[in-house]
Amino acid sequence: MKQATIKNIASELKLSASTVSRALNNHPDIHKETKRLVNSLATELGYRPNIIARNLKSSKSKQIGVVVPEIRHDFFANALSGIEEVAYQKGYTVILAQSNEDKDREEVNLNSMYLHRVAGIIVSISQTTSDSSHFKRLIDKGVKMVFFDRVCDDVNASTVHIDDMQSSYDVVKYLVNKGYKKIIHFAGPQNLAICKNRKLGYEKALIDSGVLYSPVVIEGGMHESNGYAHVDKMIEMGIDNCAIFAVNDPVAVGAVKRLKELGIKIPQQVGIVGFSNNPITEMISPQLTTVEQPAFEMGKRAAEILIHEIEDENTVIIPSDIKLETNLIVRESA
Amino acid sequence: MKQATIKNIASELKLSASTVSRALNNHPDIHKETKRLVNSLATELGYRPNIIARNLKSSKSKQIGVVVPEIRHDFFANALSGIEEVAYQKGYTVILAQSNEDKDREEVNLNSMYLHRVAGIIVSISQTTSDSSHFKRLIDKGVKMVFFDRVCDDVNASTVHIDDMQSSYDVVKYLVNKGYKKIIHFAGPQNLAICKNRKLGYEKALIDSGVLYSPVVIEGGMHESNGYAHVDKMIEMGIDNCAIFAVNDPVAVGAVKRLKELGIKIPQQVGIVGFSNNPITEMISPQLTTVEQPAFEMGKRAAEILIHEIEDENTVIIPSDIKLETNLIVRESA
DNA sequence: ATCGTGCCCGCAAACGTTTGCGGGTAAAAT
DNA sequence: ATTTTACCCGCAAACGTTTGCGGGCACGAT
């Protein structure tokens, strides 16, 4: 009933532990016949190397940590899937935690991963994270870290994200050209770089288009409920022939819900564009025009970069800053 | 730059490693003043216990493994979120893998978790898993295991799931009472217990209702594309005043797509009911009638049971079989 | 007969903890 | 002054591996 260990095998075969270890690892010093013996007994006993012991000895591990705000968000679930995929291919395991958009929990999780001596960590930061000292502390201790999507721009680490500013610039340009009289932005929390950049892209596009009104921004969270509530604030300003550019799909979906309740026609009276291309955007009526954001691909790239940095011990790593292409998907809502 | 270890602290303070260890663990044998010294130096040096070493020594770990078919499926993402939540509260970390509905990969992942000496594993089995020897092997080695949703009924382990048969029975009864002339079941792969049970519930409800036709089952996968394709097969049999009971929401959504393309009115000409209450069901038009399945709750319960079994070393564990309540959500589609 | 040369293998230390046991020192009891 | 007692601390082994080093043996070369 006991676990099969190298020691067991060794004493059974009247060999030393070292010899058994070497035999199992196919070391040239060991006689072919000995290897055969060891291997056959090992399989017979169902021997599995104890990775814990191996990691302790080598003070390395093949685990990567992932901290995301909320697993159940479609975007993160897809990114996570991409990460797992790459990790699996390269022989790494993934240890997972969610911050629930809470900075303290993010920090606790990060520390826990450090305790577990993960080889590296992939992070998408929480909405409530305003300073980055907890990241810096770990990086200083030599933990490899890669940020994706919600990146942290004031730490020295690789990042994988989209060009939020350019993407939202394109959206707004598209809306202007479509002839909407006024374009309103439902923005997210401005401490998140992605939200800030989307807002900047919105403003820049308006200026470059030479519109005669000043930008109209309603700021709030990134949930459906926020979009739902924003519509009412917007109504007060008059909505005739306006278009909404929402910071993400849930906000857009919430807005659609409220607009439909109010009997406002989309896209005739109000146009609307989301961000992320969640599967839901294709299913609602009207189908939502949105920006395709390669979640799975993003996860894959983040994992590839991290593993690359882990395995290139020798060379000095210069953080890479990957920008992935987005794609405006025009559907019915604008 | 070196990691702070117990040994470091010990030599710095001219103490033995044992004393430092005991001091950090607040052992009564150690003088208060000594503890103070040790603790202050520890915090100063940023000492973090090496969990790897601790696990090796105690041959325990506070990690639980999770293997699900596909992370990106809403149901699993939510369940995972529930698991992570409980794990976090109880001080466990989650190591995650997906099988991609592939039995071999499921097995590889399971073994990898065993190598990492996880304290227990939570599994929802893949579509292509037809035998359970790989589960049994690990359980025989003493690995605690809990199945959820897609459970494995021929192994001796705890399970958390819904009463699929009863739930689908209720759905079909509802449809019969609504007056639909014929009710057709879009079934899933029959090697999955959940699919088999949903089909059984469908058949039993028809019999108990005394309908005059024999059950009509179209079997296939569990993806949107399957539902889409099934509609065409169904059309050949005549669809007038039929209702579709789909094995899950994606299949139902696929069917809706195809029905709309064909200009068939829902629910006037064809009614349709899904299963799971994915968020998407509320957003599409017509809104989908479906069965609410408590994904997050299911993950939580699974994690609770697993951790309970892990921590009750002494008592002999008798596998529990938890059935969670479902809820028929009536919307527009039937 | 001696030396060198491969070929196999074992010794022992190490990774960072934890822990049973035993030992030392001081103050308190005899 | 001696024994007890309580209080503090260290020794060493252990968890399961890996690995540098050294050593024994048989063989062919000298």
Question: What class do helices, strands and sheet pairing of chain A give?
Answer: alpha/beta
| Lateral strand order in the biggest sheet of chain A | 2-1-3-4-5-11
State the helix count of chain A: 13
Taken as a percent bin, the fraction of beta residues of chain A is: 15-25%
Brief description of this entry?
Two copies of one chain form a homodimer. Chain A is of the alpha/beta class and 334 residues long.
Descriptors for this entry?
homodimer; alpha/beta; 434 Repressor (Amino-terminal Domain); Rossmann fold; 12 strands; 16% strand; DNA-binding
Structural write-up:
Chain A is an alpha/beta fold and 334 residues long. Chain A folds into 3 domains: 44 residues, 434 Repressor (Amino-terminal Domain), CATH 1.10.260.40; 134 residues, Rossmann fold, CATH 3.40.50.2300; 129 residues, 3-Layer(aba) Sandwich (Rossmann fold). Chain A has 13 helices and 12 strands. In chain A, the strands form 3 sheets. A 6-stranded parallel beta sheet of chain A has the order 2-1-3-4-5-11, sandwiched between helices. In chain A, helix 5 links the parallel strand 1 and strand 2. In chain A, helix 1 packs across helix 2 and helix 8 packs parallel to helix 9. The radius of gyration of chain A is 26 Å and the shape is elongated. At the A-B interface, helix 4, helix 5, strand 2 and helix 6 of A face helix 4, helix 5, strand 2 and helix 6 of B. Strand 2 of chain A pairs antiparallel with strand 2 of chain B, so a sheet runs across the interface. The first copy, chain A, binds a DNA duplex (30 and 30 nucleotides) through helix 2 and helix 4.
